Amino acid sequence: MQELIDRFLKYVRIDTESDPNNPAYPSSDNQWDLAKILEKELIEIGMQDVMLNDMCYITATLPSNIDYEVPTVGFVSHIDTSPDFTGANVNPQVHPNYQGQDIILNKEEDIILSPKEFPELNLYHGNTIITTDGTTLLGADDKAGVTEIVCAMEYLIKHPEIKHGQIRICFTPDEEVGKGAKMFDVEKFGAAWAYTMDGSQVGEIEYENFNAAGAKLTFKGKIVHPGSAKNQMLNSMLIANKFIAMFPSDEIPEKTDGYEGFYHLHLMDASVEQTILQYIIRDHDKSKFEERKTFMRNCVDQVNKEYGKEIIQLEMSDQYYNMKEKILPVMHIVDIARDAIIKAGIEPITKPIRGGTDGSQLSFMGLPCPNIFAGGHNFHGRHEFVPVESMMKAVEVIVNVAQGTAERYR
Questions:
Q1: What pLDDT is attached to residue 355?
Q2: What is the per-residue pLDDT for 262?
Q3: How many angstroms separate the CA atoms of 102 and 19, rounded?
Q4: Least C-beta-crowded within 10 Å: which of 225, 332, 338, 384?
Q5: Mean pLDDT by 10 residues, the chain (410 residues)
Q6: Which helix (DSSP H) or strand (DSSP E) does residue 154 occupy?
Q7: CB–CB of 355/256 below 8 Å?
């Protein structure tokens, strides 16, 4: 346990926040800091073919220790943290033997992690909980997954009596800005399938995710002196407000769950002369996803028609798709993971991902890639936490997957 804690704390203290406005790979230079440490550690624990390429992808191999053919299995996690909330100067706090009380993250700023607000804390009585100090995110998304993969590989190397086929691992940059799989070389990786260790609650195994698109809308106005603005001024903010009101008020993240899709306005940059809105569009159902995009286009056309000119410019593009259609033909890989979770003494939780992972893109690139829990909660914010025992169970599940795959193909 202490080795896992120490490794995780070392990783989260390294700022690896990705930059959505930088097209380079990686999008932030500080991701190299963790990548180089991981390269060194993987070599030290005995992994083979360790490679850190010029786009900050780290790959390595654990050779088979059996004398018969078994499909190569991969495990994938990402090293970057979300730009939604700062990941610089992370000061993690370790709280042993949690018993359901409020956790004071920052006394000076009165920041509290409470089971009244976050009832999932009640699942972890008796556990050791790692939190932030309330001023940053923690980075368990996905440094918990990185930690678990490294620990599992080290455990398998130290315990050759556990039989397994060849295992490939990869740590990617820039997952949080939607680019984690863009430069992933599936053919060179050489796995028949893989698992992202990027889920949340202990027990999760997921093979469905949103279809996703992003939309940028630019509203053009006209600024004149307000004292002589009658029939002259065109306030782009008011036009944008009218556009926002055209969307169903209950189809937003705050009012949806499960398989329900949404429109999410996540950025606004506004002035009289120009207003920019950025939306993300999400739905598990492909036909409903297409309907949502069509609805947005129709709203744009309606406003432009009302003003008799192109008052709104729309840029919209797909980001990723529901991996379900690529996983269903190979559902045995989900069965292997589910059996591994049960063997670890955990009840499997199968549910749709209300988001995406590298695995959703990798599945469409030819590498079927369901998602397994990494253990953290409240990602991307100051209330993020992870139970150490959940991370230990994730390590056990990785080992069980490796062993179970070998047994399945004996």
A1: 82
A2: 98
A3: 33
A4: 225
A5: 96 96 94 98 98 97 97 98 94 97 96 96 97 96 97 98 98 92 95 96 95 96 94 96 97 95 96 97 96 98 96 95 95 98 97 87 96 96 97 98 96
A6: helix 140-158
A7: no
Contact 350, 308 (CB under 8 A): no
Q: Specify the pLDDT at position 178.
A: 84
Domain extents for the chain? Answer: 2-209+322-408, 211-319
Report the distance separating Cα 361 and Cα 368, nearest Å. 9
Summary count for the chain: helices (H), strands (E): 10, 17
CA–CA separation, 313 and 4 (whole Å):
50
Helical ranges in 159-214 per DSSP H:
186-189
- Residue 281 pLDDT: 97
Q: Are 206 and 354 in contact (CB under 8 A)?
A: no
SS (H, E, C) 257-299: CCCCCEEEEEEEEECCCEEEEEEEEEECCHHHHHHHHHHHHHH
256 - beta bridge partners?
none
Neighbours of 144 (CB within 10 A): 32
CA distances from 312 to 98, 205, 212, 268, 307 (A): 52, 42, 22, 14, 10
Residue 20, token pair as written in the block: 């959505």
Kindly list the catalytic residues. 80, 175
As a whole number of angstroms, the distance between CA 388 and CA 377 comes to: 12
Phi first, then psi: what are they for 62, rounded to 5°?
-110, 110
Q: How far apart are the C-alpha atoms of 356 and 211, rounded to whole Å? A: 8
Q: Which CATH number does 2-209+322-408 carry?
A: 3.40.630.10
SS3 for 352-386 is: CECCCCHHHHHHHCCCCCCEEECCCECCCCCCCEE
Angle (nearest 5°) at CA 194 between 192 and 197? 175
Tell me how far apart the alpha carbons of residues 369 and 371 are, in angstroms, rounded to a whole number. Answer: 7
Largest separation between any pair of C-alpha atoms in the chain: 86
Query: What are the residues whose beta carbons fall under 8 Å from the beta carbon of 255, sequence distance 6 or more?
Result: 249, 262
pLDDT score recorded for residue 376: 96
Amino acid at 404: G
Report the distance separating Cα 321 and Cα 120, nearest Å.
29
CB 136 within 8 A of CB 86: yes
